[in-house]
Amino acid sequence: MEKLQWTKDIFGSKLELRQGTEHIGKIQWESMVSSQAQAMINGKLFTLNREFFLSKLEIYDANDQSLLGMVMVNIFSPRSELVLNGKRFELEIQNFWQSRWAWKYNGAEIITFTSNEFVTKDKGDIELHTACNEEVEILILLGLFVRNQFILFMLLIMLILLIIII
Q1: What is the span of the domain harbouring residue 124?
Q2: The domain that contains 62 carries what CATH number?
Q3: Is 42 left (phi over 0), alpha (psi -120 to 50) or beta?
């Protein structure tokens, strides 16, 4: 089983991806609330895009702008599906705090994400339960992109609640 680490400042616009001490990827948003991001993993470039209210997340090949995959996320449902290269993957949020989520293929977890902190940094681990294939890089980036969107949504809810209380 291979293990990766990720880290992002809560109010930052850059997520770093490492394998041990080696930097292997990143996601860079234009700003903290931007709906688009540029991503790189293992030297491959991608563009990530989301609709205004989280529902549709897309990943494109940055070189030819071809759509590689799209996932519809419902913040009130713990499961979403993605068809990639003719294979159906399922993204499952595994707890209320959204600190554990996973990609599944044929019912088996193939990539597990965990979040360890939520004060000034959002960081965690990624465990790969499968041999690397062409889908894994895309699934890793989409899994981290989904997480960022949930964090933004939770921060927005907290801000609205704070305004209502005050």
Answers
A1: 2-165
A2: 2.40.160.200
A3: left
pLDDT per residue rounded down to tens, the chain (166 residues): 689 999 988 778 899 999 999 999 999 988 877 889 999 999 999 999 987 665 788 899 999 999 998 888 776 677 888 888 888 999 998 876 678 889 999 999 999 999 876 655 678 999 999 865 779 999 999 999 887 776 666 666 777 888 888 7
Q: What is the dihedral of CA 50, 26, 130, 70, to 10 degrees?
A: 10
Indicate the number of domains in the chain.
1
User: Could you tell me the pTM of the whole model?
Assistant: 0.85
Show the CA angle centred on residue 32, arms to residues 83 and 55, nearest 5°.
30
Phi-psi map region of 64: left, alpha, beta (phi>0 left; psi -120 to 50 alpha):
alpha
* Alpha helices (runs of H) in 5-133, residue ranges in sequence order: none
What is the Cα–Cα distance from 153 to 120, expressed in whole angstroms? Answer: 16
Greatest C-alpha distance within the chain: 51
